[in-house]
Each structure stands twice: as C-alpha cells, then as structure tokens.
Amino acid sequence: MSSISSEPLQPPTPRHTHKPAPLMGDMARKIREASAVPISPLEELRRAFNVEAKESDFTVQPKSPIPLFPPGLGVEQRHGVVLGAQEPGPHVPETVAINVLDAVTVTFGPGLQVNSLKTGFESTLVILMHIPAKTKTETMSHLLSKYGEVQHVEMSDANGNDVVTVKATFATNAEAVRACAALNNNKAIFGTRISAKHASFKSTALGKGFVQDGTVRIEFPAPQKAAYASYETMEQAEVAIQKARSTYEYDCMLDAVVWNGVPSLGGITVKFKGLPPDAKLDFVSQFGENKGTMLERPNYTASIESTGRLLLRNLENFGEIEKVTFLAPPYERQQVVAWARFKSPAGAAKACSGLSGRTPQWLGRGLLVLKHVLNVQYALPIDVWNSIRDDVINIHESFRKDPAPGWVQWRVPTNGKSAVQVKLCASQLPVLSKLKIAFDAVLRGERVTEDGHWVWDPFFSRKAGATFIDIVQSNYRNLLINVDKNKRYISLFGPRRERALARERILGKIRNLHDQVFHTFPLDSGLIGLFVNADLMKLQEELGHENVVIDLAEQLLKVRGNQDAVKVTRLILQDAKRRHVTQRRPTRSSCPVCFDEASLPVTLSCGHTWCKTCLTDYILASVDTHTFPLKCLGDEGRCGVPIPVVVARDLLSSEQFASVTRASYLSYIHSHASEFFYCPTPDCPQVYRSTTTGSILQCPSCLVRICARCHVESHDGTACVDREREDRRLFEQWSRTRDVKQCPGCKTAIERIAGCNHITCVHCKTHICWQCLQTFKESGEVYEHMRSVHGGIGVEEFWF
Question: Where, by residue number, does the polypeptide cross the bilayer (predicted)?
C-alpha cells in the first residue's frame, strides 16, 4: 500500500539582504550541519519554511535524502582537505583521488595507475518495499547482514498500513547490488513479495542531484462552495473583497470578485469562492455588513483524505506507486496539488494519458489534470546559493521561453541556515538533460584563465595563498572562490561583476609572482651534490618549492622573494658550507633518457635523476600510448619503480595532468571491458559496472534509463531474454557478411577489414592471431607464431 503525506510548497522566495559570505571554514561547517540527522517532515517544515503545517490522518514519510553538495564546485577541497578526512601529514601521498568526469571519481596510485574507480551510477542505498509493518528494525538488520556490512536501517512509520518501506545503507555498492538481487521479488522471507531496488535507479552522483523521472503532478478542485453577498456601495464591496483575500485560516485561499451575472442580489453583488463545504449563510458577514446573502451547493463534500485514497486507487491501475504527496492547505486558486511518484516513467506516462482531462463524479465533476514532470533536485548551502542565484535565474528565464519549456524552482529557508532546495523541471527528458547541463556548468564555476588556459601558481597551494584567496573573497558579498590543488585551477562563483573583479586580482597576483626577481647565488662545485639533498629541501620548506630552483648547468641557486628570502638563503648556504666543507662531492647522475647530465634535475624515489624536460615528455607520451603504470627507465630500463603520482602532478600543467589521468582512466576502462560499459547514448562519456540483476540505472549526464543487464536503454515491458534474442539474431545476420570475430580477451566484436593477421584489440590491448585466435603479450611473438604455425602473416611479405 502506497502512503500519502502532506507537505507545503512555496513559490520562489524573493531575494533578501544577506551578510557577507563567510570564509571556507564556516562553509565546511555549514555543509556538515546541513547533512546532520534528519528531522521529521512536519518539524522540518516549521523550521525551514516557517509555515504552519496542519496535522492530518495522512501517512508522513521521511523525505529521501537529497545529497547536499555538488561536485565540481569543490569548496570541500579548499586547502586541499576533503571533508571528513584527516589533515595531510608531512609525507608525500602515494595516491590522488580525482573526478575524471563529473560523476566518476578515480584514485590514482604510483605510475598514475588506477587503484580504484567509482562511477556515477553507484550507490550504497537499497530501498525495500512491502515489508510487513510488524517487522522490527533489528530483524531487518540481521536479515540484511548476510549480504554485507549494514551501516544504517531506516523504517517508515506504518500509520495503520500493513506494510512499510525500509531504506538500508550498505558499506559498498557491490553489497547493495547483491542484496537487491537476492531480495527483489522474494516471497520466502515474509510470505509476501518484496520489492527491492538499488537507489541508483533514481539517485545519481552528478551534481549530487536526486533524479525523478516517474513523477506526476496532479491538480483537482478542492471541496468548497461559493457565496454571493449584496453591498450598498462599491467601497463596502471592495473592503469585503480585500478582507476575504487576506484570510488564510481555511483550507482554501478565499477569492472574491464583483459579480455582474446571475444571481443578482441588488446593489453591488460580490461572489466569494473557496468557502468550506459546510459554511453557513452568515459566513460572509465576517467581511462586513451586507444587505443579503446566497449560498451555492458544495461541489463535493468528501474530505481530502478520502478523496486522496480514491485517487490513489485509480493511479495504481497504471503502475506501481512509491509515494503520493499532497501539498498542505491553504489551497491556491481552490485547487489541490499532489505529486505521485511511480516506480517507472512508463507508469507515469500511462496515468497521465488515462486520467488527465477526466471529470470523475467523486470530484463533483471537477476537472482532473495530470502532468508528467521530470525533475532533478539539489540541496545547496545558503552561501553557495547566494553566489549562483543570478545565473540560475538567467537559466530559468531562458528555458521557460522555449516551445518545450523547462524551469527551475527553489525554496530559500527563512532561518538562513537550512539548505536551499533547488529543482530542475521539464516534461521531456531531452529538455531536462539540457537544463541540467546548463545548471551543472554554473555549479562548476568560472575557471580563472588567461589566453584560454587555466592559470596556476604553486603559491595557491600554501597557507599564504589560502590567506590571499580569503582576503579577496571577503571583499565581495556573494563571491565564492574555490582552489582545487589536485587539478590545479581556481574557480569563481558569484555575480558577473564580482567574478570579473576577483579574476583581475588573482591574475594580477599571478603576474606579480611570475614577475618577481630571482636572486642568484653561485654554488661551489663541491657543494652542489650535497646541497641538492637536505639543504635544498630545508630551503624549499622555508620559501616554497616553486620559489627555489637549482641550475646545475650554471651552478647557480635561484631564489624568488624579498630581502627576507635572501637572508634565509644566505644562512642556509653558510650552514651547508660549514657542515659539508670536508665531505666529498658525489658523482652526478645521468638522465636515463638523454644520457647527459640531468638538466633541472628531478630525482625520483628510486634514486634515479631525470632531466625535467625528459621526464615531462615521457609522462606526456602516455596520452598517446595509454601504457600504465609509468615506470622509471633507470639502469637501462631495468629499474621499473613506478613514478610517484605527485611528481607527475607537480611537473605537468593542470591541463596536461588532466590529459594524462584521463588517458589512464580510459586505459583502465578498456582493459576491463567485461566490467564497465558505456552509456548507450551516443557521445555520452559515462560508464557503469555490469550487473546480473537487471537493475535499471539512470545516467548522471544525459539522464537516460539503462538496463544494466542488456546495456541498452531501458525496455519497460519487454523481458531481457526476448530483447537479447532479437539483437543476437540481427547481429549474427550482419556478421555473416563480414569478417567479424570476438576478442578472446574482452569478448568485444572485432571486424577485420584489411592487413595482416596480427590484430590488436583497441579495448584490452590483447595481441591476437586472427587465424586461430591465439593471444600473445608482445607483437613480435604473434609474427613468429604466424610464420611457424600458419606459414605466413596473411599478406605477401617482401624482403630486401
């Protein structure tokens, strides 16, 4: 049995005057506060919206949690600290976590190899429906524990129903998938069929938005009656009209107009609409003395509760319903608004087609209007909302004017502390997808660029840089600045004028840093090798890594900074000379690429020293080769120690590092072709993990619904086996006319068009003999095999 709840909806709140945006520490605290333990919906309404919500007999379900903070905005990465994580220690981190795509988080380890990957489709939440109401929370926890570590179990209130809904949070996505597979349609546990679904069916990671594509907006007349009253003068009539329109204590918001039709009571007749169905003849006397009153019969007298249950019974004929929510009175325009959430968009579409436009008797022949509305919901901290509000309004105005409109709704809490609820809406999926792309672009902010390239200086990774950013931000009321030290870029959020001013200050600071004079100090030839070690590290700790450079070719130490930096450098040089005056200078290392003395040397953890340019070029070559992990080539290629990921990050520009990490990510995806699949929408970059449960996933970018078993768009109403049988028939028919075989490594279909019998799978990089499908690790082995076993490579060979 689906439940019905009651909650108010407010129109977008006018802009108020807010205090200056706090610094990032305050922002992080607000984010944590906003994600605290949920309160009851009724209390939430009173606190967040300051609206008096009336108690009713309806079942009030806790709201599904809407994730709070969108990725890409990156405020939680300020000062390089992820919320909930420990402060970084002095050691060099071995891994770096990066959002390669907006919804894909990848952890890279040594050699820039992928250690772990989380797609935007993954979730640890499982929703179980039709659980007997008498079931205890402890019983559910014990039942679920056999599928993995259960972190939290939440059961909805029964409120007289026989069944309840259970939300269970597991430790990992794999455990949640396993629980769904075992429990969905299971009758053996409680004697009734359980409905289990993975939360990724509706919830996606991109923007941390909560996607709903099975929602139907329902509108119908509230139970009411009309009255007519006669007044001697127009002034008396206008006073009565104003008083009626200012009355909010009844279920309907009252309306009144001067009436010139039938009936006419003499004098100035006023028609009052929205009166309670049981209103008496003297009801309108509260609006002023009148000469006479007449009442119409009510359109119907049933309560909203009983009407809601009749409506629910009709809706259930078109598909399984998760929840029906009635917005609380007073009802604007004397119309009741409800939202029904179907399990699938197909059921929502059928309900709209079958019920909208009808005039059922149980509504007093009033018009029933249903509209299928797709939406994505966000919850943003108030300061973040203030910084992007103008841009969101521009998006709303732009999409609202389209022939197939989209629109944005928002609720700003009156207490200034709760999260701002933002909802993107459209009646068509392509429109919602475009609307979401525009909104996500606002959430990612405006990158600080110059000549089309991201600007960056290591200064912003240090405390001094963070202090500078805080000062800039504090000068503008609605500006937020995000410094992402992993990706090495700076983003701005706020009104256009404030962004422009802040951008100029940041660019000015970067130009100033780059223009600062380097002070040069000659180094004694016997001191260079020793100074490169502990003394150099000490100086870099004092002045910043970016401000200290050793030029080995010229035997110079270059330091950027003021006179204080010069004094510190001289002291460290004097100390180094005193301590190392009698020590012997070690032999210089040769670069393993150019075999010359290392220029602008970079020493890796294995001890081998590279030219900075040689190491940079070597790392960048992986963008084309897609060969990972990247290993040191020292000892004539025998070293093999992976290059630390932070070394690569510090050497490369922001865009170069992004290119390399993306290449590593793509290499990992292609080499695990049986585990990861691309969204079926053309050009959509999102990937998801394969499952055997037939789960329906929703792409966090294009919002298309995907059958995770068949890897095609969701085929509601058609069994996977039937669809697969037809697809297999068509593919085999096509393959018979072409030279097509499956890769022995990843099972991807490969078509050979021309060339020799040596085939390399573009997905898993397997070397294949096309004639017998034997696989090899190296290409040379394939040719030796083809000549010795098959007598040739498949094409005529010419020897010179």
Answer: none
Residue whose C-alpha is closest to residue 44's, from 12, 11, 7, 13 = 7
Q: What's the start-to-end Cα distance of the chain, in Å?
A: 82
CB 274 within 8 A of CB 245: no
Give me the pLDDT at residue 84, please: 30
- Which CATH entry fits the domain spanning 124-202: 3.30.70.330, 3.30.230.10, 3.40.50.880, 3.40.640.10? 3.30.70.330
Three-state DSSP state, 539 = helix
Range scoring the smallest mean pLDDT among 145-154, 380-389, 659-668: 380-389
**Which helix (H) or strand (E) element contains residue 227?**
strand 225-231
Average pLDDT of the residues of the chain: 77
Task: Check: CB of residue 693 under 8 Å from CB of residue 184.
Answer: yes
Q: Which residue has the higher pLDDT, 769 or 569?
A: 769
- CA distances in angstroms from 193 to 128, 190, 342, listed in the order given: 11, 8, 18
- 8 Å CB contact between 732 and 742: no
Task: List alpha helices for 152-266, DSSP H.
Answer: 173-183, 234-245
> What is the Cα–Cα distance from 642 to 714, expressed in whole angstroms?
42
Res 88: pLDDT: 37
Structural domain boundaries in the chain: 124-202, 224-295, 446-515, 738-800
Cβ 52 vs Cβ 7: under 8 Å: no
Contact by Cβ (8 Å): 168, 223? no
Alpha-carbon distance of 793 to 787, in angstroms, equals 6
How far, CA to CA in Å, does 339 sit from each of 199, 224, 332, 362, 373? 20, 21, 16, 19, 9
More confident residue, 491 or 75: 491
Which of 657, 650, 664, 644 has the alpha carbon at shortest distance from 111?
Answer: 644
Residues in Cβ contact with 760 at an 8 Å cutoff, skipping those fewer than 6 apart: 766, 767, 768, 779
- The 10s digit of each residue's pLDDT in 574-628 is 777 776 555 444 334 688 877 777 888 888 888 888 888 889 988 988 887 778 8
